[in-house]
Structure formats: structure tokens, C-alpha cells
Design goal:
Blueprint lengths: L1 H44 L7 H17 L2 H13 L5 H22 L3 H4 L1
């Protein structure tokens, strides 16, 4: 009898931990969706490298959190593309802006919890 209670206690603990892990995954996916949309909206407002101040503040704050829930290589490639936007001409700026916007659009799908992304 005592052995069965111990096993049930362990099963309950495992179920609670699994539930918490699921909640954390859902919240991180929700955060990625919201933060990507926010960055896309702020990026739309920028017309030249001089207009990136508001975007810069949000980008730094958001990518600091992204480092906890996304692969570092992906955040690094976004950062590299973004920082290249500062030193470019206005013509190149539009190309960098379009590339960064495209990468931001893909992040929620690539980071979504799925069997394909797990394996």
C-alpha cells in the first residue's frame, strides 16, 4: 500500500511538471508572436538609418529575452542584419529593412513547438 502511494505521488509530480512545461512553451510562443509583430510595426516606421532609434530600444530589450527562448545563432543573425542597417546608404537600407522584416515574419513559425522543431 505504501509503495503505491509513493508511485502515485511521483506520477502526480511528473504531471504537474509536464503541465508547467506546456504552459511555459505556450507563453514563450505567444511572446514571440507579439514581440515579432511589435518589431515589424516599429520597423515599418523607419525610412532611413536615422529613424531607427525607437526600433533600437525595442530590439535590444526584446532580443535579450529571445536569447532565453530561441537559438542564439538566429538572434545573432538578426542582430548582424540589423546593425548593418546603421552603416548603409538609403538604397541599401530598404533592402536590409525588407530582409529583416522577412526574418521577423518567419520567427514565430520556426520557433513554434512542434514535433518537427523538437526533432
Amino acid at each position: 500500500m505504501l509503495h503505491i502511494k509513493g508511485e502515485l505521488k511521483h506520477i502526480l509530480i511528473m504531471l504537474v511538471l509536464l503541465f508547467l512545461l506546456g504552459i511555459i512553451c505556450l507563453l514563450s510562443e505567444l511572446y514571440l508572436n507579439i514581440s515579432c509583430r511589435q518589431l515589424e510595426q516599429e520597423l515599418e516606421k523607419a525610412e532611413s538609418p536615422q529613424d531607427l532609434d525607437a526600433f533600437d530600444e525595442s530590439f535590444d530589450r526584446i532580443t535579450d529575452i529571445w536569447l532565453l527562448i530561441m537559438p542564439h545563432e538566429e538572434v545573432d543573425s538578426l542582430s548582424e542584419l540589423y546593425y548593418n542597417m546603421y552603416a548603409c546608404s538609403d538604397e541599401d537600407f530598404r533592402q536590409y529593412k525588407q530582409a529583416l522584416k522577412h526574418m521577423l515574419e518567419l520567427i514565430p513559425d520556426r520557433s513554434r513547438l512542434s514535433l518537427q522543431n523538437v526533432f
